């Protein structure tokens, strides 16, 4: 019988799956589209959510879209209905803290399962080798149950607070990430306008006090943005969605900080030059 089930084998889910299989976990997986090409006696893909849910006591949710998350958890043949009694559901999908609390309550009331939020954040190493931060929200009792599972595939498990706190920390992290990236792009563009070689400048900044994770890891994407090609649509969409969640979270807590509003300008910077020109001519954002 599998130790763990995982739902969503996209960019992050597939790497987590590879790590688990590499470390000897028996893993069942479901994704209607993605094929991670994992070949191992301990790995199998199921034909439906319900089929996979019935096989393991711990479940990792890494789906991308909120409608898919709702269906996964609450459909008649979904995870909630078909999982073993008292299962652990680990929510990796990025959502607002408010939504975490709603999902946690509904999962517990309807099915008797425990849902903890464990937000994902990259580190310097490979996720497939266990280099991963998990920012976890839950009670002490939740962590006692979930930590042994989480430490199977992540080397930095941080209990940041009560249910929902993991996603709050993740959104704060991504707010800083996008702010740093916007500032880095502006600095590189300013340097180029003054005749500096962008690659030389990036290397100098990366080795100096102005360095950041964004500056160190986004060089290819930044080059495309600086020469007018823009960022891939999937990157722009993810950035817009996560900044929107940060705005929703901070609005619920009080006023939206000015630095967050300024970071939304990153979305304009990420558009291809042609699209930016069209927006300017039409007057639509």
What can be said about this structure in brief?
The chain is an alpha/beta fold and 285 residues long.
Task: Describe the 3D structure.
- With 285 residues, this protein is an alpha/beta fold.
- Mean pLDDT is 89; it is low at 276-285.
- Helices cover 53% and strands 14% of the residues.
- The termini are far apart.
- Helix 1 links the parallel strand 1 and strand 2 (27-30).
- Helix 7 packs across helix 11.
- It folds into two domains: 4-162, Rossmann fold (3-Layer(aba) Sandwich), CATH 3.40.50.720; 168-282, N-(1-d-carboxylethyl)-l-norvaline Dehydrogenase, domain 2.
- The chain contains 14 helices and eight strands.
- The protein has an eight-stranded mixed β-sheet with strand order 3-2-1-4-5-6-7-8, with helices on both faces.
- It has helices at residues 11-22, 49-53, 66-74, 79-82, 97-111, 140-150, 165-193, 198-206, 213-217, 219-226, 233-253, 258-263, 265-270, 273-282, and strands at 4-7, 27-30, 43-45, 58-61, 88-91, 114-122, 132-137, 156-161.
- One of its GO terms (molecular function) is NAD binding.
- Residues 3-161 form the 6-phosphogluconate dehydrogenase NADP-binding domain.
- It comes from Actinocorallia herbida.
């Amino acid at each position: 019988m599998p130790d763990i089930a995982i739902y969503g084998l996209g960019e992050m889910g597939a790497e987590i799956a590879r790590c688990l299989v590499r470390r000897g976990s028996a893993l069942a997986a479901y994704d209607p589209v993605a094929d991670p090409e994992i070949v191992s006696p301990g790995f199998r893909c199921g034909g439906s959510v319900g089929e996979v849910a019935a096989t393991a006591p711990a479940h990792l949710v890494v789906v991308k879209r909120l409608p898919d998350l709702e269906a996964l958890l609450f459909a008649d043949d979904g995870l909630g209905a078909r999982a073993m009694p008292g299962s652990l559901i680990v929510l990796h999908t990025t959502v607002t803290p408010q939504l975490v609390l709603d999902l946690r309550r509904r999962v517990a009331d309807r099915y008797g399962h425990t849902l903890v939020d464990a937000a994902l954040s990259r580190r310097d190493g490979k996720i497939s080798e266990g280099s991963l931060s998990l920012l976890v929200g839950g009670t002490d009792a939740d962590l006692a149950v979930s930590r042994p599972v989480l430490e199977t595939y992540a080397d930095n498990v941080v209990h940041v607070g009560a249910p929902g706190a993991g996603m709050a920390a993740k959104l704060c992290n991504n707010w800083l990430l996008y702010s740093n990236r916007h500032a880095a792009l502006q600095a590189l563009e300013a340097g180029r306008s003054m005749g500096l070689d962008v690659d030389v400048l990036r290397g100098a900044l990366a080795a100096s006090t102005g360095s950041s994770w964004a500056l160190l890891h986004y060089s290819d994407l930044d080059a495309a943005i600086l020469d007018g090609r823009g960022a891939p649509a999937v990157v722009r969409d993810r950035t817009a969605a996560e900044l929107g969640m940060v705005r929703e979270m901070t609005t619920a807590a009080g006023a939206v900080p000015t630095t967050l509003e300024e970071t939304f300008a990153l979305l304009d910077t990420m558009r291809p030059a042609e699209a930016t020109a069209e927006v300017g001519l039409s007057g639509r954002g």
